[in-house]
Amino acid sequence: MAQIIEARAVSKRFRQHRRFPGFFGALKTLVTAEYTEVEAVTDVSFAIAAGEAVGYLGPNGAGKSTMIKMMTGILVPSAGDVTVLGRVPHRERQANAREIGVVFGQRSQLWWDLPVRDSFELHREIYGIARPRFDENLKSLSRLLDLEPFLERAVRQLSLGQRMRAEIVMALLHDPKILFLDEPTIGLDVVAKDAVRKFLSRVNRERGTTIILTTHDLQDIEEICPRLIMVDHSRLIFDGETAKLRTALGSARRLMLEFAADPGPLELKSARLTSDDGLRKHYLLDRDDVSLVHVLDELGDTTTLKDIALEEPNIEEVIRTFYQRRNAELPLR
Amino acid sequence: MSVYFAFARSAFLTQLAYRNEVWANMIGKLVQVFARVAIWVAIYGGSASIAGVSLEQMVTYALLGGAVTGAIRYESIVSGIGQALRTGDVAVWLLKPASFPLYVLATELGRAAFRFVILVVPTVAVVAAVYGMLPPASPFHGVMFVAFGLLAYTIIALLSALFGLVAFWLLTSFSLEWMMQAILNLLSGQLIPFWFFPAPLAVIAAHLPFAWIVYYPSAVWLGRLDVTATLAYFGLGLGWAALLAGGVALLWRKASTRIVVQGG
């Protein structure tokens, strides 16, 4: 498959005018030109092939939106380069714009005063979409996301969930090759989130639209994106299959064996002993292919065994511990 | 181009959705125009003419001035552009294959067309029926009035866009709206026609772009400019419009590059 998005050693620094506190500080701010530099993206590289669905995950301020803005041509990288469909986005912003669809969870692109259908009509004019294609897309997409009941209603009268569904449909009307979504499920209730997720994975599967999605909701990624890119403190820290994240971040399942009588030191091949309190022994299962059956098999005689607990760290916990560990290592800023 | 026509049309139709506002506006507008005319009637107080201008001419001037400035809401262009730049909503527009300033102007022209038909024409007709209104000085002046009227809309729209863009650097559009209103009241001739201005001020005011918004359209209708002067000042007005359009394009490019490079 051809790579349609490539980021090579991309960095983005923002210069912020330094402000001094207080009244005299404000005066000083007016006459000085001191800047502080903030690095939002540092040396990030990845390539995305046509038809992929990639989740871009990171905590607030990790540089997710900045990266999306560079791929859509709103921001220019400070170093490195980005190509989207063979173009440099900020140099050919309008040509790029015709081939991508963008949804911002926090900014509406619909016309506030107009009925949803009229917003779509204006979108058709802006992108010069041929009438038959437009009608066909509108019909199939609105059926999938159940837009029909409120197509004639003004956008300002819609609920957040309805509005978000309309935003996503609009971004797809001109058959974009890539769909960028910046926190599309933010503020939605469980039902609306579910509808949006199902719809997006269907669009990716059936229309072959490449999807890049930023979020801090892991479930978005687990349900839509087989591939995950994770960033933290502006740097890329993981790029690979979502399912393999756990192994990659080095968190293993925890196993606890409790015995009625102390069997003495007990080393196992299938699990690594981490602490031994005599009656209670704690192990880590590093390998994914090792199951409880293997452990019990290896133990052989289980008559003295009183209790077993296998803890499966969920992906969210894996990431939380990862961030915490990382934050502890990094100097405060 | 059809895109911007679509924006204007949709803005025109959106206005229909606010019917109550239309009625409230019409009553407000009517009171305003009546008041302006009543002031002139009081000032004349029975004398046939002041400084060579008859009361009838003055009433006509007041009505025409209201017709041009009554339809356009320049403050919505100023705040529309200013706000989009400040809140960063303009980023959404950088993602569309269409121009944001042209979108704002097209939208406001659509609304202005609606107000012209629904508000301006009826109020002018009512007041004219009560106080009387002079016809254009000649067919030539009548035709040129239409041309000057369109130019007036163009200039006021471009001026507002310019003020709106300046808001991006000053981080306030509210004070700019007030400033623009004050300037327009005085220098467009809306409050007092230039022929009542002291000589040096009148000459300066007559050559600033604001003069084309109220003063020249009305003066042309009344036949105060002969054929040569009418055409000359139309040309000069076009020059101002071109200059303003250049200014808008330049500031827009600067503002959007700044957003693109710095992230607004």
Provide structural commentary.
The complex is a heterodimer of chains A (333) and B (264). Chain A is built from eleven helices and 13 strands. In chain A, the strands form three sheets. Chain A has a six-stranded mixed beta sheet with strand order 5-6-7-3-8-9, sandwiched between helices. Chain A has a four-stranded antiparallel beta sheet with strand order 11-12-10-13, with no helix packed on it. In chain A, strand 6, helix 7 and strand 7 form a beta-alpha-beta unit. The relative contact order of chain A is 0.12. The mean pLDDT of chain A is 85. Chain B has 264 residues and is mainly alpha-helical. Chain B has one domain. Chain B contains eleven helices and two strands. A two-stranded antiparallel ribbon of chain B has the order 1-2. In chain B, helix 2 packs across helix 6, helix 4 packs parallel to helix 7 and helix 4 packs antiparallel against helix 8. The radius of gyration of chain B is 19 Å and the shape is globular. The model of chain B has no long low-confidence stretch (mean pLDDT 86). Chains A and B meet through helix 2, helix 3, strand 5 and helix 4 of A and helix 1, helix 5 and helix 11 of B.
Q: Walk across the major sheet of chain B and give the strand order.
A: 1-2
Biggest sheet descriptor of chain A: 6 strands, mixed
Number of helices of chain A: 11
- Can you write the helix and strand succession of chain B as a string? HHEEHHHHHHHHH
How many DSSP-defined strands of chain A?
13
Largest sheet of chain B: 2 strands, antiparallel
Low-confidence stretches of chain A: none
- Rg of chain A, rounded, reads 25 Å
Amount of beta strand of chain B: under 5%
Helix proportion range of chain B: over 70%
- Shape field of chain B: globular
Binned, the helix content of chain A reads 25-40%
Which fold name corresponds to the CATH topology of the largest domain in chain A? Answer: Rossmann fold
